Amino acid sequence: AVMQVFSLFRDQFDLSAFEFFSDKALQHVMDRSGRAAPLAERTPFYVLLELVDLSASQQEQLLTCFEKAVEEGWVLDGVISQSDQQAADLWVYREHISESIAPRTPYKNDISVRVSKVSAFLAEVDRLVNQYYPDFEIIWFGHIGDGNLHLNILKPENLIAEEFFRQCNQVTKWVGDLITQFEGSISAEHGVGLLKKPYLHVSRSQTEIEYMRSIKKIFDPHNVMNPGKVFDIPVAYEN
Questions:
Q1: DSSP H or E stretch at residue 22
Q2: 138-195: per-residue pLDDT in tens?
Q3: Angle at 57 between CA 53 and CA 58, to 5 degrees
Q4: How far, in Å, CA of 202 to CA of 196, rounded?
Q5: CB–CB of 149/188 below 8 Å?
Q6: What is the per-residue pLDDT across 65-111, written as a single tens digit (0 to 9) for each?
Q7: How far apart are CA 59 and CA 65, in angstroms?
Q8: Is the distance from CB of 200 to CB of 231 less than 8 angstroms?
Q9: pLDDT tier for residue 52 given thresholds of 50, 70 and 90
Q10: In whole angstroms, what is the distance from residue 9 CA to residue 25 CA?
Q11: Is residue 128 packed enough to be buried (19+ CB in 10 Å), middle (13-18) or exposed (0-12)?
Q12: Of the candidates 161, 98, 163, 173, which has an alpha carbon nearest to the alpha carbon of residue 129?
């Protein structure tokens, strides 16, 4: 339903933001901040939709789109900010997620797939993790507009960190296989660096990686610019 709501509003408006987050993410923000729920009814997922400088006719059109989403059963409840402060208060529920889950030692994945495949991809990740690691709590949030998903897995309190991260590494392998299947990216916005280096092949072919290596060799023949990141390049030095 999140994706249907996105399509409805994207077709009618120039969106400046369309964020989504799960009810579990919301609960962590509420627990840490002491804030009340933004809506009277709780639901598995929420979206934070932002538009700016709307004309009077566009405001009416906005309400029409909202009513259609409710009639279709895609939306159960909603609220529209009436001031900059109210808008800022709503953004807290999205922007404070990372801070709120930090005490639970989250294992993070920054991934993306085509917008049209977000729902199927998310459901398959949930299915795999819940099947093999039912004690793991999954926190989803991200930028729906470009298919950018933040997968956070929270460490169970009775599991030591070393074993938790070992199990999460297995999850990353499954996620990598799914990214190949869904033609997505192992790194949506935070770069490859060292952590995603072993998984670059899931979203780039060997030919593409060789092209990348060749370009780096041209501009950085002695491999002094951030060496060892993204991929390794052997360098032969003259005596």
A1: strand 17-22
A2: 999 999 888 889 999 999 999 999 999 999 999 989 998 999 899 988 877 777 777 7
A3: 45
A4: 10
A5: yes
A6: 999 999 999 999 999 998 999 999 999 999 999 999 999 999 998 88
A7: 10
A8: yes
A9: confident
A10: 24
A11: middle
A12: 173
Enumerate the β-bridge partners of residue 18. Answer: 49
Spatial separation of the C-alpha atoms in residues 165 and 178, rounded to whole Å: 20
Amino acid at 88: A
Q: What are phi and psi of 175, to 5 degrees?
A: -60, -40
What tokens does 152 get? 């956070």
CA distance 79 to 187: 33
Q: What is the pLDDT of residue 193?
A: 77
**pLDDT in the model for residue 236:** 56
Length of the chain (residues)? 239
β-pairing verdict for 45-50 and 137-143: unpaired
